[in-house]
Design goal:
CATH topology of chain A: Four Helix Bundle (Hemerythrin (Met), subunit A)
Number of strands of chain B: 2
Number of domains of chain A: 1
Largest sheet of chain A: none
Strand content of chain B: under 5%
CATH superfamily of chain A: Cytochrome c oxidase, subunit III, four-helix bundle
CATH superfamily of chain B: Cytochrome c oxidase-like, subunit I domain
CATH architecture of chain A: Up-down Bundle
CATH class of chain B: Mainly Alpha
Distance between the termini of chain A: 65 Å
Helix content of chain A: 55-70%
CATH class of chain A: Mainly Alpha
Oligomer: heterodimer
Chain lengths: 230, 593
């Protein structure tokens, strides 16, 4: 029985043409004065590369606003009551950071799998390149579940959203972050689906990975902020 | 033409009515949808202003039918003070968000930015579609507050704390009305962030070959700069809206101070900061002023160039000035808070950049003025409204010098002087930018010309009318006429009532001009003369494609750009201009690389 080899996914080449800046034109016009277009470098990054930075900037601004609100609110009144953060948060942090590592492994596995497919070296390989993406997805889901456990632990102590401004900010910041993590999980599911359909583009995976790593970094920042201020 | 390997957006032409006209992915349809939304919003906002003006001028006069809108807010057609404030809040919110942000930026930007850079569409058409429909939902949510509970919020478009967070004890609309307001504006923020994402990536990544950043038309630059501002500003307003909603529905205390007693009722909140809202709001609010006006700067420059038939004094300086305005707009927001009780040194720190921001504004105006000087300007509706824009921008801007001084602002802050200032500089000026854009681009958008005679009548009535409305506002302010009062019963205000009546008549007169505009718009859309591809003999890419543009903008091809967008006043084979897409080399003083 003949072995069926799946069609290799469409993954952009990793070539860097040494061109800095974006757009065909960049800051300087690349069309020479005589209009000979054969001499023109033709390169423009895929919009998803730019878009992910735009998204991350907006997310940064949003959390900057929340941070300034926390600092102003804490400084404006004497009613702030400190409390100890639920210990599960540290375990959740570990999970999220490990998920970043697994995503990087996934990225490399996917790239290697595609390379092998191109050279037909993977004919005997049965390893699914999506495995590490699934592991990342699982860790991400575990993180969100862990955050939910943290909320339940806090509620068990009698600390609810409206109990005190400190608990308000705790629930608010962790919830808004969790919503963003869910967005990242959506990105991972998208990548897995596309990988199975053999239509995953490298840019989509790179953008998802950037977003995911950012979520990890953002969470570490929030944890430090909450640890210092609550 | 070469087959270019730019990252084109491939989505098939729509085949169903829903995909063509409702949930369309086409940036041109989305641009028109934004324009239609802004048009409806503008007429609602203007109608509300008429009601307010009639009430201010003839305080006890019943407005026939008003009781149908709200039987409690306007029993017998005479509006209560609370209902006056509710209308005022809705007027401001509708105009600032759903007209001044939506029309010049989202509507024209959506339609023309991809064409001006030479792209087929925006890079994320689904996000683009979502952007419009989220904005539309935001508008519906805002409008629904007219019909829910005791009506819309009365806290003004700035929704100052603690009034925005104390609930229905604060007056009509302060319960459900505020929550609906915050949900609406929160949704609006999502819509604009999605729009900004597309605008920025379109500008940076989808430019065709030869289209360097410096070869982008000034309108494209303005939309790009505005989208960068919007990205920063709306990402901050959204958290602020979330905090307000939580104060209302979850019992948190972000904005309401301890021990607040209203209507003999002790509020359950504690320790909130009223100033926190002002900081969050104005960090968005001041850039929002520039989000409204910067597209106008670009649109007007673009139109004037096509009518002056010669380049601007300095293309680059105009771009740098718009960029400087955007950056400085984030450093001046505290000038809205001079009377908030913040540290006087903070006032000084905010006063200085406020004065500095006049420098790029002045540079822009001087470039326009000296470029216009000696030019044989083609007089048409679009160029007249562009001149009107400059006039309003300068007239409104000059009073900004005074308001930038904390010591003067303390006197004028809560008066009609401020109302006159911002209506001229960001309201009427931005509206004139929208009108200029409409008369200029209508042929490309619809394939038909607008009636020029009606356009000129519209201009002169609007120009004279707007000055008759808003110049006396400054006089009223200097005479101590407090803003946001629904009636003027104090003795010192009695002599000012005739001025208010004059303003009301001027407002009705100016409103009539807008009805003429609407008739012209609708009539021309269906029965206007057929428009050629390039009726203004303009040079940028939108004029090199058929009218109206095909689904993919350039009929399956990608243009190549050889010149900067404003090669006017040259001798070419087609006349005194050379298109950006023409490889023809002409003798020119300046051609951006």
């Amino acid at each position: 029985m003949a072995t069926t080899i799946p069609e290799p996914p469409q993954i952009d080449r990793l070539t860097d043409r040494g061109h800095t800046g974006n757009g065909n034109g960049n800051w300087n016009n690349l069309v020479p004065a005589d209009g000979n277009l054969r001499e023109v470098m033709d390169y423009s990054p895929p919009p998803s590369s730019t878009a992910i930075w735009v998204v991350l900037f907006a997310v940064t601004m949003m959390f900057a606003a929340f941070t300034s609100a926390l600092i102003v609110r804490k400084g404006s009144s004497q009613d702030w009551q400190s409390f100890t953060l639920p210990s599960i948060l540290y375990f959740n942090t570990f999970l999220l950071l490990v998920s970043s590592v697994t995503l990087e492994v996934a990225r490399r596995r996917v790239a290697a799998f595609m390379g092998a497919l191109r050279t037909h070296a993977a004919q005997n390989s049965t390893a699914s390149p999506a495995r590490w993406l699934y592991i990342t997805l699982f860790l991400g889901l575990l993180f969100v579940a862990g955050q939910y456990v943290a909320w339940k632990q806090l509620a068990a102590q009698g600390l609810y959203l409206a109990t005190n401004p400190s608990s308000s900010f705790f629930y608010l910041l962790t919830a808004v972050h969790a919503v963003h993590v869910l967005g990242g999980l959506g990105g991972l599911i998208y990548c897995i689906r596309k990988l199975h359909k053999s239509t995953l583009r490298r840019n989509a995976l790179v953008a998802t990975a950037r977003y995911w790593h950012f979520m990890g970094g953002l969470w570490v920042y929030l944890l430090v902020l909450l640890w210092m201020k609550l | 033409m070469h087959d270019m390997s730019v990252h084109a957006v491939h989505h098939a032409p729509p085949t169903t009515f829903i995909r063509k006209h409702v949930f369309s992915l086409d940036h041109k349809v989305i641009g028109k949808q934004y324009y239609a939304l802004a048009l409806v919003a503008a007429f609602i906002g203007m109608f509300l202003s008429w009601l307010m003006r009639i009430h201010l001028a003839w305080n006890n006069a019943a407005i026939p039918g008003l009781q149908l809108l709200s039987s409690t807010g306007a029993p017998g057609g005479i509006m209560t003070p609370e209902y006056y404030l509710q209308l005022l809040t809705m007027h401001g919110t509708i105009m600032v968000f759903f007209v001044l942000t939506t029309a010049p930026f989202a509507a024209f930007g959506n339609y023309f930015l991809p064409i001006q850079v030479g792209a087929e569409d925006m890079p994320f058409p689904h996000f683009n579609m979502m952007s419009f429909w989220v904005t539309f939902m935001a508008f519906l949510v805002l409008m629904s507050s007219f019909f829910v509970g005791d009506g819309p919020t009365l806290g003004g478009w700035t929704q100052y704390a603690p009034l925005n967070a104390i609930g229905s004890v604060g007056g009509p609309g302060q319960g459900a009305g505020v929550v609906l307001w915050a949900i609406s504006i929160g949704l609006f923020c999502v819509g604009q962030l999605l729009g900004a994402l597309n605008f920025i990536t379109t500008t940076l990544d989808l430019r065709v070959k030869g289209m360097s950043l410096m070869r982008l038309p000034l309108s494209a630059w303005a939309w790009f700069i505005t989208s960068c501002m919007g990205l920063t500003a709306f990402a901050v307003l959204m958290p602020a809206c979330i905090l307000v909603i939580l104060d209302h529905v979850a019992g948190t205390s972000f904005f309401v101070a301890s021990g607040l007693v209203i209507n003999d009722q002790m509020l359950p909140h504690s320790g909130g900061s009223t100033l926190l809202w002002q900081h969050l709001f104005w960090f968005f609010g001041h850039p929002e002023v520039y989000i409204a006006i910067v597209p106008g700067l670009g649109i007007v420059s673009h139109i004037l160039l096509a009518n002056m038939r010669r380049p601007m004094l300095s293309h680059r300086t105009l771009i740098y000035s718009m960029g400087a305005l955007a950056i400085l707009s984030y450093m001046v927001y505290g000038h809205h808070m001079f009377v908030s009780g913040m540290n006087p040194f903070s006032s000084l720190a905010f006063s200085f950049p406020t004065l500095v921001i006049t420098i790029p504004s002045t540079i822009v105006v001087l470039i326009w003025t000296f470029s216009l000087y000696g030019s044989k300007l083609r007089i048409n509706s679009a160029s007249l409204f562009s001149l009107g824009f400059i006039s309003m921008f300068v007239s409104g801007g000059v009073s900004g010098f005074f308001l930038a001084q904390p010591s003067i602002d303390i006197m004028l802050h809560a008066t009609y002087f401020v109302v006159g200032h911002f209506h001229l500089v960001m309201g009427v000026a931005a509206m004139f930018g929208i009108f200029a854009g409409t008369y200029f681009w209508f042929p490309k958008m619809t394939g038909r010309m607008m009636n020029e005679t009606l356009g000129k009548i519209h201009f002169w009535m609007s120009f004279v009318g707007a000055y008759c409305i808003f110049m006396p506002f400054h006089y009223l302010g200097m005479a101590g006429n407090v803003r946001r009062y629904s009636s003027f019963v104090d003795d010192f205000l009695q002599p000012l009532i005739p001025v208010h009546r004059f303003i009301t008549i001027a407002a009705l007169f100016t409103g009539l001009a807008q009805v003429i505009f609407l008739i012209n718009l609708i009539h021309s859309r269906f029965w206007g003369a057929a428009a050629p591809d390039n009726p203004w003999e303009a040079t940028s890419l939108e004029w090199s494609t058929p009218t109206p543009p095909p689904f993919d903008n350039f009929g399956g091809k990608h243009p190549i750009v050889y010149h900067d967008p404003y090669q006017y006043g040259v001798k070419s084979s087609v006349g005194d201009y050379v298109m950006q897409t023409s490889p023809e080399q002409v003798v020119t003083e300046h051609d951006e690389k």
